[in-house]
Each structure stands twice: as structure tokens, then as C-alpha cells.
Request: fold
Amino acid sequence: MLAARCAPFVTFPGGFRTCTIHSTLQTPSPVAALAPSSDSRFESYARLFLGLAFFLALFGLCCGAIASADTWWHLATGRWIVEHHAVPRTDPFSFATAGKPWIAHEYLTDILMFFLHRAGGFIALATVNALLLASAFAIMAFSARSSRWLAYAAALFAAFAARPAFALRPQSISLVFGAAFFWIIRESLRRRKPKWLIALPCLMLLWVQLHAGYLLGIAFVGLLLFAEVLDWLLQRSQTSPREWLPLIAAGAACIAVVPLNPNGFSMLTFPFFVMRMKINQTIQEWRPANLHDPHLVPFIALAVATLLAMLFSRHRYRPGQFFLYALLLVAALKSARNIPVFCLVAAVLLAEHLWVPGAAWLSQRTSPPLKIISAALALTVAGFFCAHAAANGLAFQALAEKNLYPKDAVSYLVNHHMSPNLLNDYAFGGYLIWRLYPTYHVYVDGRADLYGDDFLSTYVAVYNGERDPQAFLKDNGINTVLLSPSSGLTTLLRMLTVQGSWKLEYEDGRAVIFVRAYPAPY
Reply:
């Protein structure tokens, strides 16, 4: 039906009034048609709340990282670079290797760590480190081709399993870049978007300035490419050899940009030099994972759960994924520092192959209001957990220097103006550089690549009390010794104090200081 209504106040010059014809049939407005329904709004809010809950819980799990022995010399290196406006080419910190060529491969990270520490101390460092670690696992969660809640659960499980290996060190940055490489490669192959691979060499150019862990990105290119080839050979993949060419080109471009850093071409060989060092077998993070350690129970559980999920998956069998799983698991078992890398990839594999009976039916039967209530409850619980974990973790960071390092012993050494040269505990070296440089130079610290196998082997033998220290101390002109009370060398020096050649100057629960009775020239 049509109805005519005259508009009495609108006339043409001739005096005729206009009439407007209105339809009684209501036509839906295009804007109204596009407006979201209440159910879709509930779904959107539920996804938002669940995503926030996931990241808060993830951040809380990543807050437990502590300052390692290497954190201190990273801070000292950043301070040195800022003060000298240059990247060091030779060692400035140790009197035993003064002037020896040194590759400061983490120079940009050292600068950033120094500025963070200057702005907010270890609390600022720990906060940013937790954000980096959480971002790495969040990237893997969003790259998983599974339901969102399964991806979140798998990523939280993986982060909990990797937690014992977390520390305030540049490796956290490499985990974020590694996760980004993994996501970009898989998405470009799945969506057939080869242009996305242009991002890889761009990221690599930045990564190589931050950490020598850039090798992880190149490894992911090779491993994922090999996995695709394996699946294709066994007729388990729909990709064609032609689609691999952009990935090969991107990998070659990543290698090509590595020398574009202050250390030049030496960065190409540096990671391999470090991995071949024999002394790594005496350094805890490089040693094989101790599966009897109760802290590694979540890691073992993750490895088993992921394998079972892949074996009993409802998805098509992909041998390339088993290859990736097996290789990274072997790397994690061979060296504990590789555990977080395995956990990153395991988060994706577990999320994609794990299935829960009745989960789809339950999701369909759950009303949108109930979903948003459940998500809000999860957000509340995650918020409380994050606040509690962050408060405990950051409070511990504020006391880390006093509780883990010889703060009082170093203050005593400085106040009493003890003589160089200083023989120190390996674990204390970085802290002593931070506190004492340039007044004192250390004998050794955590830069194992600088000192080399022969130097460190001799030091370890002396430190463990396996050889007479007197000739060693005399040949190196050492007048002051600062060690852990439990070392073998400490026991031998206590015996030398009876002879009168050395005397015990200071002792507490963290450290002991011995000084030569008649200082040698230096």
C-alpha cells in the first residue's frame, strides 16, 4: 500500500504544494542489516576476554626469569658502548686477555639492557623480558591451526615447561624472532603468499644486531623446507616444488644480510665456533638436560603429550612434523639451552593434533551469554594469577643482587682498596665487571667464546683444586682472590694461610676474599 502525504510548508514558486509518497512496506535499512546482533557481540567480547586472560596468564608464567651470571657483563658492555660511542673490538674487562679480539655479537641488546636498567633497574629488565617471552609463545598460539582455546592451553603448557630455562638474557629476543620466522614461513606456504617471505631477511638484518641466535631463524627455514619436501615425497602435501623457490631465496637472502653488522663476516662463523667449544660440557646450560631434575618434569610431560597427540591425531599424517618434533627434541635433550625452542614448536604441534571428545558439541550448546561469563571468569582468575606471579617475581628481582651475588664482599674489597690482579669465581665474573670496572679487571667471566677451551680448562682445574695453585697464582701476578666458599681452590687457600703466604681477609655466606701477604708486582 502507498500513502500520499502533502508537505504544506514546502511550495514551488507557482504555489503548488509538494507531496511526498511514503510506502507502508518497511524495507530493511542497509545499516541495520550490517549491525551486529547481540549474539555476535557476546561472541566478540568472549574472544576478547579469553585472549586477555591467556596473555595475562602467559605473562605471569614468564615473570620468574632471574638475572643470570651473564646478565651483568651484558649490562657492563652496554655501559661501555654508551660511554665510548663504539662497539668494542678487543676485550676491555679481563686483565688475563687484555687486548684479545672479542666479538660483541649482542651489542645492540647490551645497549638496550643498559638503558632499561638505568631507567628502572632489574624490575624494568624483568618486565620487558617477560613481555618478550610471552610474545614468543603468543605468536605460536596464534599460528596454530586449531580452536583458539586449545591453542591457548597448549601455549600455556609449553611456557610452563620451558620456564626453568628462562633468564634475563638476550636469548629471549631470539625466541621472539624465531617464533616470528616460524609463523611467517608456515603461513606463506599455507596461504600461498610468497611475498610474505620478504619479511624474513628484513627481520634477520635486525636480529643479527641483537644476538647470535639468528642461526635459529636460518635453521627454521631449512627445517620447515625439508619437512615440506618430505611430505611431498610421501604424497602428504599439496605444495609443489615451484612453491619452495621463494622460501629458498628468502633463506639465501637471510644468510646474505648476516655480515651487515659491526663484526662483519665473523658473525657467519661465530655461532658454530661457540657450539664446537669443548668447555661447554662443563657449563650447565650447554650440558645435556638432566631428566632426573624435578624442574624438568613439565618438559618431559609436554614431550610425551605432544607425541601422543600426533600419533592419535584425527588429522592427516604428516611425516614432516614428526621429523621436526624428533630433531628439536634431540637438540633439547643434548643441550638444556634448546629446551625453550622445542617447547615453542611443541605448543603448535600439540594444539593442532590434540582433540577433546565433545568439545565441538559443548561449544555449540553453550549460549553466548554463558560464554562471555566463562571468559570473564577466566580473565579474573588470570588477572589474579598474573598479579601474584608478577609481584613475587619482580620482588625477587629487587633482591637478586644481594641474594645471589657477592654484593657485601665487593663493597668490602672496594672500601679497603685491595690490590689487583683479581682472581675470581667464574659465576661472579660478570657481576664484578659491573661493579668494579675500570678500577679492577677480572680474570674470567661468562664470555667463554673469548677465553677459549685451553684457558678455561686450566682455570677449571685450578678452581676445583685439581692442581697446586701457587705457581698459577704467581705466574698470573694475582694478589687478591674472590671465590665461592665451596670451591676446591678456597680449601687450598685456607691451607696456604697457615703457611703465611696468604691471609683470609673477608668471609660471608656468599664469598671469601684472600689476599697475598706480600703483593706481587703487576
